[in-house]
Amino acid sequence: MNAPFFKFGLFGDDVSLIAAFVIGIGFGFFLERAGFGSAKKLCAQFYFTDLAVFKVMFTAIITAMVGLFWLSWLGFVDLSLVYVTPTYIVPQVVGGLILGVGFVVGGYCPGTSCVAAATGKLDAFVYLGGIIVGIFVFGELFPILSAFYESTPMGVVTIPQYFGISYGLVVFLVVLMAIGGFAGGAWVEKKFASTVKES
Amino acid sequence: MSSAEKTLTLDDAAVHKKAHVAREAQPYWNPYVAGLGLGLVLLSSFVIMGRGLGASGAFSSLVAATVNTVAPSHAASNTFYAEYIGDGTRNPLKDWLVFEVLGAIAGGFISGLLAGRVKKTVEKGPRISVGKRFAFAFSGGIIMGFGAKLARGCTSGQALTGGALLGLGSWAFMLAVFGGAYAVAYFVRRQWT
Question: Where in chain B are the domains?
C-alpha cells in the first residue's frame, strides 16, 4: 500500500472533506484535553509558570516527525508528496513576530480559540471576531502588501536541504533538543513557581 | 412506604452525584500524553491526506467567501481573495480546512463535555474587567489574523505542521512567534495574574 492515500487516488475530493472533519475532531479533542481551551493556561507559557504549550507542541512535533521519517524509510509514505509550505523567510519572520504579539494580547491562537469557543469561553468568541477583522484588513491591504508578502522567496526548502545534512540526522537533533527542552522546562517551572509564591 | 422513601433517597443521591460531576471539571491530561495524541493525529493527516493541520486558512476562506458575496467584482480583482474563491465552479467554503476546523470545534466540545469543562465563562485574571478582557481579545485577534496571513499560516499550519516537516521558514516562524510573545508578555500581564 502507498501513502499519502489521497495523493495516490484512494479516494476523491468529497471523501477528503469527511476525512478533514474526522481529523479535525482528533485535533480539537487533544487540544482541549491539553487544556488549550483556556487562555490562562496557554499564556502561562509566556510567564514561565506552566510550559504546557512548549511540551505539547514539541511532543506532537517529534511524534509526527519521527513517525513520518520511519514510515518514509520503510517505503510506506512518499515524503515528496507531503505538502510543505514554501519559505518566504522575511515575511514569515515578521508575520511570526506579529502573531506572537497577537497570541499573548488575545490569549489564543486560531486553532485553540475554536476549542475555547466550543467549551463556552466568551472571550474566545470575541477573539474569533478579531481574527475575521484582521484577515479582512490584510485582504483589503493586500495590493499594498503583496510586494513584501512575495519577497525573499526560497521555494520549498527544509532544514536538512538548506544545511546540506541528512534528514535522519536533523530528526535526531530535533528529538535531542526537545528532550533537553523538556528537562530545562521542568527546572524553569520549578524556579518560577517558587518566585510566584515568594512575591 | 419505606420502599418509596428509599427510592426517593436513591434518586436524590443520583441527582446530587450528577450535579457534582457537572460542577467539578476533571484535570487536564499530562502534556506529554496530550502531545502524543496530537502528534498521532498530525501523522495520520500526513499519511491519509499528504498534508498537515491548519486553522487560520479556514477563516480566510470565510472572509473571502463573504467579500465575494457582498462585492464579487471587488473580490475578483484582489489576488488574496481570488486564491480562496477559486474559479467559481465550487463554493469556497467547501474547503478542506473549513471542514477540519468544524471537526476541531466538534472535537473540542466532545472533550470538554466528557471532562465537565463546558461552561459559559470569560478567561481572565482577577485584576481586569470583562470589558477590558474583551477589548484585549478583540485587538489580539486582529493582530493574530493579520500576522497569520503575512506568515502564510498560524501556529497549527506553520509551527506544528511545518515544524514536523522540518520546513526552514516554519522553524524561523516558530522562533519568531515565541520571540514576539515573550517580548510583550510583561506589558499585558495584568490580564492573567
Answer: 30-119, 124-193
CB contact (8 A) between residue B67 and residue A139: yes
Cell match 481573495: residue? Answer: B81
d(CA A128, CA B43): 27
What spatial distance separates the first Cα and last Cα of chain A, rounded to whole Å?
Answer: 60
Q: How far apart are the C-alpha atoms of B35 and B131, rounded to whole Å?
A: 33
- What pLDDT digit, counting tens, does each position of A183-192 carry? 999 999 998 8
Q: What is the mean pLDDT of chain A?
A: 95
Taking only the tens place, the pLDDT of each residue in B58-112 is 999 999 999 999 999 999 999 999 999 988 888 899 999 999 999 999 999 999 9
Query: Are B138 and A46 within 8 A, CB to CB?
Result: no
Instruction: Supply the range of the domain harboring residue A87.
Output: 13-195
C-alpha dist (Å) from residue B131 to A43, A127, B128, B137: 19, 13, 8, 10
Residues in chain A within 8 Å Cβ distance of B166: 65, 158-160, 167, 170-171, 174
User: Is B76 an 8 Å CB contact of chain A?
Assistant: no
pTM beyond cutoff 0.80: yes
> Cα–Cα distance between A178 and B35 in angstroms, integer?
12
Using alpha carbons only, give the angle A195, A124, B86 rounded to the nearest 5 degrees.
130
CB A108 within 8 A of CB B192: no
Interatomic CA distance for residues B68 and A77, integer angstroms: 38
| Secondary structure (3-state) at A153 | strand
Q: Measured between CB atoms, which of A62, A120, A128 is closest to B118?
A: A120
Task: Tell me what the mean pLDDT of segment B147-154 comes to.
Answer: 96
